[in-house]
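#struct-pred
JK: can someone run the complex with magnesium ion? inputs below
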Amino acid sequence: MVSPLIYRVDEDTLRKAAELLRTGELVAFPTETVYGLGGDAFNAEALAKIFDVKKRPRFDPLIVHIAETGTLDTLTDLSLLEKANREKAALLTGRFWPGPLTLVLPKRPEVPALVSSGLPTVALRFPSHPEAQKLIRYSTGAVAAPSANSFGHLSPTRAEHVEADLGGSIAMILDGGPCQVGVESTVLDLTGGLPCILRPGGLPREEIEALIGETAQTPRDGAPGAQASPGMLKSHYAPRTTLILHSGKEMAELPFRKNEAYLFFDRPSMERWLIETGFSAQNLQAGEGIFYLSEDGDAVEAAGRLFEILHHLDGLGKIRIHAEEAPPEGLGAAINDRLIRAAA
Ligand code: AMP
Ligand code: MG
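RT: done, structure tokens with the ligand placed:
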């Protein structure tokens, strides 16, 4: 069945979506990380709708998406940053924008307080997805967009995921196919002294540090936004099915049960387990809940498939999902962060 809400992205549907955004409506759209639920960042009513549709607590600030570096000055006052961090902001935007990096910067007073839940800062991102960029440019140039899912649920990486979760309450879903990165952006706070990663995500810490030097991993006490990152709540990104996180060793020792699902980090570890468990072709069929994130241990591939596979496993009606930790380097940090919160 063709859904009346889902529109394939093309020039016409982008114009239509942009018109909706300009008139204060919400539109779900693809980005390279996950699907976003967009509303005009300067329209307080549209922002209020985002919180209502997602059932998101008002203390959780939104990321504003832009499609030209020039728009920065309408949203943030970089002169309020410490000099060293102003230079780092320039380096970071020069190298990693557009891309899966969100910067927390001083907010201009013209930006509605609802965007940042009353914080004096605003989180900004320049997505690399070409259609997302067009939508932003065709509408108002600044689109607030959290992930297009109910608060605490799994993030959507396909238009169908958005429809299943929010279908009843939004005007339009632009379908650009599956998201490439598959996990949310890395959120980096530049408003204190040492830049601080508030949320690991699609841009690995190692790449950020290679460019600007050391970063802090957890928010400093009392830092702006320290208490206010939804991605930092203990339970988030959660499937409905109970998820249990295991080390590689624990995972390898799990018995097979037909009514449980198994998510291995890579194919070799899944295959070793299948042999250990004495799997036959017959019970492989019974156990269609057995998956791996990456063919050969590539964390980029694994991150791209994470939410996709969790959505699938969640739909199988198993009583629990066992998931194996990723090696902690690179995007493995973002994968483990999501799995830990999914398990909480
Ligand atoms: P999402 O719902 O995936 O768009 O998540 C938005 C992320 O950006 C959350 O982790 C927010 O807490 C973080 N964020 C947005 N605005 C701010 C801000 N002003 N200060 C700190 N974190 C922010
Ligand atoms: Mg989210």
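RT: quick notes.
The radius of gyration is 20 Å.
The CA atoms of residues 65 and 125 lie 5 Å apart.
JK: thanks, will look after standup
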